[in-house]
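Subject — a protein and its fold
Encoding — discrete vocabulary of local shapes:
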Amino acid sequence: QVQLVESGGGLVQAGDSLRLSCAASGRTFNSYVMGWFRQAPGKERRFVAAIRWSGSTYYSDSAKGRFTISRDNAKNTVALQMNSLKPEDTAVYYCAASRVLVTTTQAYDYWGQGTQVTVSS
């Protein structure tokens, strides 16, 4: 069992940066791929980025070059650094855990409650 708690969301202006954090409980954290997803109002939840225990990463096209995912295996945390934010980045951001690095929501076994990110123009 893994429990995930996100933090760090907020209201920012276009061009600003924001860092999201996700704290995981459970001794098996290192065996999971950690991912970030986002869901805008009226839209499906979509993949943003993921990171393996080894540190290898994968990003959506919209996140490449602006977002950086990282993890601290000793502290059971994963972070998403978001730079050059745009209004279209506005969404609820979710942290999730999966046994494999995939981009589909169905493959993720555990989810946090989400944190709101709002980017004003």
User: Anything to note?
Assistant: The radius of gyration is 13 Å.
